[in-house]
Specification:
By secondary structure, the chain is mainly alpha-helical. The protein has one helix and no strands. It comes from Epeorus dayongensis.
């Protein structure tokens, strides 16, 4: 069974590495994070009047 030349191993490593990097970049930028919509009515603040 013939062995692969080292140049082919390097080419395979480069191809798989670039595929992994491109897939990771595409996966990172394709996600649209949704921000939770908070309304001001949820937080009730009580005004404090300080009398010195």
């Amino acid at each position: 069974m013939p062995q692969m030349a080292p140049l082919s191993w390097l080419l395979l490593f480069i191809v798989f590495s670039t595929t992994l990097i491109l897939f990771s970049i595409m996966n990172y930028f394709m996600v649209n994070p949704t921000t939770p919509q908070t309304t001001s009515s949820q937080f009730k603040t009580q005004a404090l009047n300080w009398k010195w």
